[in-house]
Amino acid sequence: MDVRNISRDVFTYNILVDAYGKEGMIKDAEDVIELMIQRGHYPDVVTYNSLMDGYCLRGEVDKALAVFESMARKGILPNALSYNILINGYCKKLKVDRAIALFQQMPSKGLAPTIETYSTILQGFFHVGRHVEARKFFKEKMINQGVELDKVTCSILLHGLCQNSYVVEALSFFQILESRGLVPDIHVYNILIDGLSKNGHLENARSLFDNLPLKGLRPDVKTYTMMIQAYCHEGLLDEANELFREMEGNDCLPDDVTYNMLIRGCLQNKNYCEAGVLLDEMLGRGFAADASSASVLLDLLDVQEQDPALLAFCKKYFP
């Protein structure tokens, strides 16, 4: 785009720099900055933040740092967003120690970390497998210092804990967060229900699921699918089927993932008749069996190739 003949102020220039940066067109963003200087408009912290963000989106965090360091030489003070951009960039490059160094620098510059700062570092720790430090950071830097948490932070924490099998601790933190006034949404509940059910805590997962209406929440298709998977894993096929049929009554239509999950459960529990009913229903709704369902069927044929019911199922649906 030729921007030379467009009249604009710093605000308009900043919009252009930001737009070019988000598209990865850093050279164009730099050209706009050069043009604004030539026309007597001086870049501000917003301008340089947009340029830094553009570099970080391209994975060029060291170039973003160079822009950050040049700001001070030009008499422009970085703000909390400047730090957040760099911290996020380093965390995405798995350089969490560099992110922590920036975080620790903020108070000396008169800047208070925002909830985005804390959330980014927390996720960065989990992302590189440093879950012990993540838990310590959450307790000491956030809970103990009274940081006001949001649902994004809650999701990051619970997902990180559940992924590392700290499900009891995740449930404990969840209760702490609720006591601090955080109102979790269905996404937050889904993370915890999934983590509990996959780590042998089906009763806790079921309790959370059953109490959703009391919290003013309705299960979505992911919630139902997680619980159906948990029931199937425990061999509780009747409960899985009951929950599956309950979905439509609650205006929540199963998707292809739900169907395939239950079909696999039926196959693994040798309920080929019910698997057939579900397969017919699924195909009638325009869904198809996925690779995992086909894999389960092949595995069963390897070990139960003489099972008449299984052979009849295969002949009917996979002739």
Automatic annotation (TrEMBL):
Question: Which Gene3D superfamilies does the protein's record reference?
Answer: Tetratricopeptide repeat domain
The UniProt entry, under InterPro entries, shows: PPR_rpt, TPR-like_helical_dom_sf
Q: Which SUPFAM superfamilies match?
A: HCP-like (SSF81901)
PPR repeat positions: 9-43, 44-78, 79-113, 114-149, 150-184, 185-219, 220-254, 255-289
Question: Is Repeat among this UniProt entry's keywords?
Answer: yes
Any matching Pfam family: PPR_1
Name the keywords, alphabetized: Repeat
The question of whether NAD is a record keyword is answered with no
**NCBIfam families the record matches:** PPR
Membership in a protein family: Belongs to the PPR family. P subfamily.
Name used for this protein in its record: Pentacotripeptide-repeat region of PRORP domain-containing protein
